[in-house]
Amino acid sequence: MSEPKTIKDQFGRVHNYLRISLTERCNLRCTYCMPEEGIQLSEKSEVLTHEEIIYLAKEFVGLGVNKIRLTGGEPLVKKNIEKIIRELTALPIQLGITTNGILLDKYIDLLKECGVKDLNISLDTLDKDKFIEMTRRDYFDRVMSNIYRCVLEGFNVKINAVLIKGQNDNEIADFIEFTKTNKVAFRFIEFMPFDGNQWDNSKVVSLAEIIKTVEGSFGSDSIIKLEDKQNDTTKSYRIKGYEGSFGVISTVTNPFCDSCNRIRLTANGRIKNCLFSATETNLLNPLRKGEDIAPHIVKAVYPKKKSRGGMSSDEDFFDKEKNTKNRAMISIGG
Ligand code: SAM
Ligand code: SF4
Residue 265's pLDDT is what? Predict the structure, then answer.
């Protein structure tokens, strides 16, 4: 019997998790994600259509991918999102969505009908004015009401907050207090460098600092370390007696590249084999020429660098010349 097909890199890491960015467009303008001057959007004709997305997803599934997450830009603003969700959930995969939450109320019934349970919702502050400052848009009440609704409806809700020193790091204890009565996993993401996002190492709130703050607020005896799964990017904890949990995604100070199983497909049909890779592989052209796509996918992932797109040392990663030779996050898909 022949071996099942897998996508492996040069270090033997098996890639079974695909993140598809559906669009470069968004209804928010988060300062850490979207450069102030905006981004040059891909030509409409260069963006994957709904049919192409489904075709490519099937190619990835044929190579062993069993988990897909839709992201963006904001995935819920994509034309034909309903068809995309319906057709993807017919594949043998676990489907999740990362969203800013603004449009979730419109899609709750569809998500329930299709059996999509995993929702990652971004929320960087519990303060309405700060939300407007950080996202440059006034949607706080809508996002909060959608978060409460999704929790009530029984979705697995994870809330993602990018912590930026001097902006929202004073809310760490408030975020965790939110998990007292709300069954959500609150995840603090270390601020990462991308093109045009004003990143500076001094603005990163590290895993160590976060834990120190939590210990200061809740006492170290109250913090329970939860078990992390093999490919988890999050180090998870719970405060004794709290309904929800919290965690830290420490890409900057404690990367988890050794067990990385992720591939990214951008809205304009490029494979990024790492979030930080400066190079990309064009799948759109071979797809439109009718070529066999599977060999292109395998070839794109094989040379994946060991860690952080080749910026393995902190010296390289903290070097602004090197770490912003990448797209803006909004056009990669986080
Ligand atoms: N619009 C959706 C949302 O905001 O959830 C999906 C796309 S967004 C690019 C995906 C995730 O990337 C979000 O959780 C966002 O907070 C995170 N993100 C964006 N820029 C980031 C940065 N510079 N550092 C760390 N996380 C970032
Ligand atoms: Fe839009 Fe998400 Fe980026 Fe914010 S983080 S600008 S919501 S894509």
Answer: 97
Going 212 to 218 to 222 to 225, the CA torsion angle's sign is negative
Question: What angle, rounded to 10 degrees, do the helices at 81-88 and 50-62 form?
Answer: 20
Task: Quickly count: other Cβ atoms within 10 Å of residue 216's Cβ.
Answer: 11
Element (H, E) at 265: strand 262-265
Q: What is the pLDDT of residue 292?
A: 96
Residue 277: the pLDDT is: 86
Instruction: Measure CA of the first residue to CA of the last residue in the chain; give whole Å.
Output: 38
| For the CA of 29, the nearest atom of ligand 2 | 6
- Chain segment 244-288, per-residue pLDDT in tens: 999 999 877 777 788 899 999 999 999 999 988 888 999 999 999
Query: For the whole prediction, is pTM greater than 0.85?
Result: yes
Domains of the chain: 17-331 (3.20.20.70)
The finding on whether 332 has its CB within 6 A of some atom of ligand 2 is: no
Spatial distance between the Cα atoms of 229 and 224, rounded to a whole number of angstroms: 16
Instruction: Read off the pLDDT band of 326 (50, 70, 90).
Output: low
Ligand 1 surroundings by CB, under 6 angstroms: 26, 32-33, 71-72, 74, 98-100, 122, 160, 162, 189, 191-192, 194, 197, 329-330, 334
From residue 147, give the alpha-carbon distance in Å to each of 88, 165, 223, 258, 314: 24, 25, 25, 33, 36
